[in-house]
């Protein structure tokens, strides 16, 4: 009971020492609960069966990711706890001097840890429960579901998982604390605050050479990742990543050798106010913490890229997903040929509507309008200019001008006309691939078909979607006059349908009717393994797209926030440790006449630079990384950099800025506490 009373008094008196520990645990529990309460959010949504399945799948995926996330958070909590132990070693030494045994000290520490842990868990869960109500609305918007009506949602499973994961972490922390206290000697505890790290920085000339080498490596990484163009390969990405990591490490390592020397050249800066003290403190910290600063910079880079690219990609896909479904449904039939001369192996096409009628299926029972279109096989390749001097072959198909114009008419678009010697190019995919195709038409200006030499130009390029499909596999279509395709083998037939009304009843009738079609009876010479068919509906396309965007958005925000918390925690603990180690130096400033305002300003500047340096380089890295991600995502949609960047900036200000302020207040409290003790 006495141990509990002492623990209560210590926590009440020195809660500011627990700020980072409390903040990390609270943020962790809150985010953990929000992203693991997905399945319970279904209670306030009107979901189709596929949407319900998508949420269940996403929930299971979050369970797997959360196991990894919990390990990261456990490391951060133990790391923060290690600072608390170091911070209070002298206090524990005084306890032992007064006759208190190590067992009693361990029990006090256990009680303090449990009290702060329970407070953090409760705070994190309460915040998570309230914030998850808004997250349910966001989730519904991502998957295209309607909200039945607002009602308070609580997920017992998410709360139990959070308590279980972090409870296990507490047990590890408690064991760590007990072992640490039992292994300490009294003399080490008493003089713990006088032990500092020693590091001999490299010579000035060597540091400058290393700094130049670091810049060369970083620039080489940028050039490597941006040079390949649209689709950087795995080995290229790996090489660029290695160059970037080594370059970042050498960048911060080299600063320890000339950072202070460089600033000393500017007397107006170096000799102003307490800048001499601030810069020497920063130089000392860089000398001993360049490894952790490098680690933080790289984690910030991952966090920024994940948040910006994930949210930007989600917005891009959602903005363009309507283009993937111009019709209520598209039914496709294709047969495989092996190139044999046997006429039975030649696919001459199928009249799908006639086959449906022959099987007794009334297409007018569900279709307000329908249209068939045939695509023709081609050995030709389209030369796509991905990057200067780096063309790539893309497969193409042909379509008759009459079929193409009827497809446009069904969408309410104007028809096109072609001269006898002209052909048009159509790319119906989303994103920036149509732009690249249009720019590459000059490489494909001449085409020979059935002995006729054809030509085209940029004014004969279209980006119309010709079928309902989630992936746009048949991306590049050549439109030619009908007569030119006489004798050319067919590749596939499509039947495009617009329902009588947009209701699930007509869609179910359409899909079930098309499944009844006996294709084998109309494709003689082909086994069931030699032809394929399938129906894509607008509902399925939009729901599949929503499922993908929801998963991307959740993972991006989840992982981005966790890496941001990890980065800020490492910086905060390192800075608090540095302040604790050098508290006597701040006391010396007071003796030399510096007032509280000057000391507070010097401390603020030091922490601002310490937090800002890795963030600044991470932002430069991220500018390149996000640009590459935008090109990679270009085939899926035009990624909005501005919108995602604003969101990422808001998250950084909230989390990173919160840790920065907490670190400043915590450091200031350490200095003031030492000053009060000296005066007392």
Which features characterize this protein?
alpha+beta; 11% strand; 680 residues; 13 strands; elongated; two-stranded antiparallel ribbon; nine-stranded mixed β-sheet
Concise overview:
The protein contains 19 helices and 13 strands. The chain is an alpha+beta fold and 680 residues long.
Topology:
Blueprint: H1 2-13, H2 19-34, E1 45-46, H3 49-87, H4 89-97, H5 102-143, E2 146-147, H6 156-182, H7 186-190, H8 204-226, H9 234-264, H10 267-270, H11 275-320, E3 329-335, H12 352-358, E4 367-376, E5 381-387, E6 390-400, H13 401-410, E7 424-427, H14 433-439, E8 446-449, E9 452-455, E10 461-462, E11 476-480, E12 490-499, H15 504-515, E13 531-537, H16 538-581, H17 583-591, H18 596-632, H19 641-679
Parallel strand pairs: 6-11, 7-10
Antiparallel strand pairs: 1-2, 3-12, 3-13, 4-6, 4-12, 5-6, 7-11, 8-9
Helix pairs in contact: 1-5, 2-3, 2-5, 2-6, 2-16, 3-6, 3-16, 5-6, 8-9, 9-11, 11-16, 11-18, 11-19, 16-19, 17-19, 18-19
């Amino acid at each position: 009971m006495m141990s509990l009373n002492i623990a209560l008094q210590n926590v009440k008196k020195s809660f500011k020492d627990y700020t980072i520990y409390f903040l990390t645990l609270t943020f962790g529990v809150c985010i953990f609960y929000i992203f693991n309460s997905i399945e319970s959010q279904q209670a306030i949504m009107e979901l189709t069966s596929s949407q319900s399945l998508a949420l269940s799948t996403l929930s299971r995926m979050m369970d797997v990711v959360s196991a990894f996330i919990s390990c990261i958070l456990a490391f951060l909590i133990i790391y923060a706890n290690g600072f608390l132990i170091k911070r209070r070693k002298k206090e524990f030494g005084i306890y032992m001097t007064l006759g208190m045994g190590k067992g009693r000290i361990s029990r006090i520490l256990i009680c303090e840890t449990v009290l702060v842990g329970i407070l953090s868990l409760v705070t994190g869960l309460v915040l998570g429960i309230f914030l998850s109500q808004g997250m349910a609305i966001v989730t519904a918007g991502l998957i295209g579901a309607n909200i039945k009506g607002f009602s308070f949602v609580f997920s017992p499973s998410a709360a139990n998982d959070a308590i279980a994961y972090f409870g296990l972490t507490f047990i590890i922390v408690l064991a760590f604390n007990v072992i640490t206290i039992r292994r300490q000697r009294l003399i080490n505890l008493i003089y713990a605050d006088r032990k500092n790290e020693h590091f001999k920085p490299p010579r000035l000339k060597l540091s400058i050479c290393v700094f130049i080498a670091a810049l060369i490596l970083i620039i080489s990484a940028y050039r490597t990742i941006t040079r390949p163009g649209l689709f950087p390969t795995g080995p290229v990405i790996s090489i660029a990543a290695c160059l970037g990591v080594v370059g970042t490490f050498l960048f911060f390592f080299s600063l320890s050798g000339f950072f202070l020397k460089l600033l000393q050249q500017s007397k107006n800066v170096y000799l102003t106010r307490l800048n001499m003290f601030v810069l020497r403190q920063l130089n000392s910290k860089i000398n001993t913490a360049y490894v952790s600063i490098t680690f933080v910079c790289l984690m910030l880079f991952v966090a920024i890229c994940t948040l910006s690219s994930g949210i930007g990609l989600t917005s891009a896909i959602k903005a363009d997903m309507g283009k993937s479904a111009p019709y209520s449904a598209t039914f496709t039939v294709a047969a495989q040929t092996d190139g044999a001369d046997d006429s039975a192996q030649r696919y001459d096409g199928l009249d799908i509507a006639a086959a449906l009628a022959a099987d007794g299926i009334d297409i007018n029972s569900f279709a307000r309008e329908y249209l068939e279109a045939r695509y023709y096989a081609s050995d030709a390749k389209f030369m796509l200019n991905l990057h200067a001097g780096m063309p790539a072959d893309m497969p193409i198909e042909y379509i008759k001008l009459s079929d193409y114009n009827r497809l446009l008419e069904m969408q309410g678009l104007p028809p096109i006309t072609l001269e006898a010697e002209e052909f048009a190019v159509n790319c119906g995919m989303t994103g920036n691939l149509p732009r690249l195709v249009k720019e590459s038409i000059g490489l494909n200006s001449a085409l020979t078909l059935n002995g006729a030499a054809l030509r085209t130009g940029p004014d004969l390029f279209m980006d119309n979607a010709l079928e309902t499909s989630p992936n746009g596999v048949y991306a590049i279509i050549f439109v030619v006059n009908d007569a030119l395709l006489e004798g050319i083998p067919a590749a596939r037939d499509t039947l495009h349908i617009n329902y009588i009304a947009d209701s699930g009843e007509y869609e179910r009738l359409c899909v079930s009717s098309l499944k009844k079609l006996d294709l084998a009876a109309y494709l003689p010479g082909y086994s069931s393994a030699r032809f394929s068919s399938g129906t894509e509906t607008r509902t399925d396309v939009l729901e599949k797209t929503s499922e993908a965007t929801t998963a991307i958005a959740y993972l991006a925000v989840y992982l981005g926030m966790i890496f941001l918390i990890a980065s800020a925690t490492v910086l905060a603990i390192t800075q608090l440790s540095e302040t604790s180690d050098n508290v006597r130096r701040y006391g010396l400033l007071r003796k030399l006449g510096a007032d509280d305002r000057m000391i507070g300003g010097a401390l603020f500047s030091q922490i601002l630079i310490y937090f800002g340096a890795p963030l600044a380089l991470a932002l430069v890295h991220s500018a390149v990384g996000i640009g590459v991600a935008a090109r990679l995502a270009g085939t899926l949609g035009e990624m909005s950099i501005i919108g995602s960047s604003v969101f990422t900036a808001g998250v950084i200000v909230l989390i990173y800025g919160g840790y920065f302020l907490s670190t400043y207040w915590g450091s200031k409290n350490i200095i003031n506490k030492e000053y009060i003790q000296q005066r007392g």
